[in-house]
Amino acid sequence: MKHFDIALIGLGAATMSLAVRLVAQGYPGQVVIIEPREYPSDDRTWCGWRLAEHPFTAQATRTWSTWAVSQAGESVVRGSDRTPYEMLRASAVQSQALDAIATRPDWALLAGRSLQSASSDNQPWTLQLDNGSSIIADRVFDSRPPALTLERPWVWQSFVGRELVGPGLTDDSPVRLMDFLDDEAPLLTFVYELPIAPGRRLIELTRFAPQRPSLSALGAQLDGILADRGLANHAIDREESSHLPMAPIAPYNREGWMRVGTAGGSMRPATGYAFHGIQRWADQCADDLMAGRPPCAPSRRRTMDWLDGVFLESLWRHTPAGSAGKPFVQLFDRTPAEAMVRFLMSRPHISDIAHILRSLPPTPMLRAALAHSRQAMD
Ligand SMILES: Cc1cc2nc3c(=O)[nH]c(=O)nc-3n(C[C@H](O)[C@H](O)[C@H](O)COP(=O)(O)OP(=O)(O)OC[C@H]3O[C@@H](n4cnc5c(N)ncnc54)[C@H](O)[C@@H]3O)c2cc1C
């Protein structure tokens, strides 16, 4: 049985981010990567604010220095030249990662293979694959999606997006982060819009909901919105959809087996952003491996988890239905752009948190804080 120093389970955002760093830094060990899908695929775009450079910076399809949110005709536009909002296509990131991996003939990429089971008598791990073969690895980084049941205040972020190509789609407007709909469905629904290039735009319908809604129903609602805007006949170049868990997933790092990416808790509960948090984890983890230290697991600040719980609890309690976007608009309006961005990207200064708290309506937030604290103690 072939023996590897590291096994990466899945070739997704987290494992690719670690792999490119290990290649760049000349990691001396042997790595095997097990990925069921054939690559490259373009099933998602990774967006977020680039607070720091990362190895995939050059892959950004587009950056924007302004963004907007709106509710019931009230629109707030904010921006920063220093901290752009960036979009990376999964296929571009994958191509860079595959090129890097290909420079290591001592590594193995098992594309089209999936992990079936694993066993360990202490260490190393024996990994059984779907074709009946087995390999051995001293250390495993596992990015397989977690199976979850969410409880209040945590919710699903479900979305369907279509990348449209056609006339009349300009690219000189801000990113529209959240244009809230007057929609009765709990907890809230909004349109997210990336003006990628002249004649090309990604438009997504997103819902934060206690239960995962049907993606085809969400897609039909999106098609109605596109038709209302006269975009029904535009070509759909690409589609993306998913249910993301907006919940604090606990880290798992035992006996040489670490869960990483979404499975390891890299996703920010209140936003669903994960890509840039993954970059920070991968920086530290690669440094640890290069220095021969035990690698760090993804981590989140407890205060941020608590704040996220309070914020989501406030959405559950919001009345009337259909106006839950109001606190978001208020938040973007009253908080300086840089502070807001650091907060959304999980890197707030203490003064940023103070800004955020001052910008939110105090009474509902206080009630939500009490309720969330009670839930946490139960
Ligand atoms: C459509 C979409 C859009 C998103 N947009 C953004 C965004 O704009 N910004 C942001 O920050 N986040 C975004 N996210 C959230 C998050 O960043 C991504 O989900 C990100 O890909 C998570 O990285 P990961 O490494 O945890 O998981 P993934 O990138 O999903 O990688 C997991 C890998 O494990 C593989 N796998 C599954 N089962 C097995 C098995 N049995 N054996 C081996 N491998 C297996 C999968 O094929 C997959 O390649 C988005 C998510 C989706 C789905």
Could you characterize what this model shows?
The protein is of the alpha/beta class and 378 residues long. The chain has 3 domains: 3-59 and 90-147 and 247-290, FAD/NAD(P)-binding domain, CATH 3.50.50.60; 155-245, Alpha-Beta Plaits (2-Layer Sandwich), CATH 3.30.70; 302-377, no CATH class. It is 30% helix and 31% strand. The protein is built from 9 helices and 18 strands. The protein has helices at 13-24, 90-102, 215-228, 275-290, 302-316, 326-334, 337-344, 350-359, 362-377, and strands at 3-9, 31-35, 45-49, 60-64, 66-71, 74-79, 85-89, 108-111, 115-120, 125-129, 134-142, 155-165, 175-180, 188-197, 200-209, 235-246, 253-254, 257-259. Strands 1, 2, 8, 9, 10, 11, 17 and 18 form an 8-stranded mixed β-sheet that branches. The chain has a 7-stranded mixed β-sheet with strand order 6-5-13-14-15-12-16, with helices on both faces. The protein has a 3-stranded antiparallel β-sheet with strand order 3-7-4. β10 and β11 form a beta hairpin. α1 packs parallel to α4 and α7 crosses α8 (350-359). The radius of gyration is 21 Å and the shape is globular. The termini are far apart. The protein binds flavin-adenine dinucleotide (FAD). Flavin-adenine dinucleotide is lined by residues 9-15, 34-37, 44-48, 114-115, 143-144, 240, 242, 244, 261-263, 272-275.
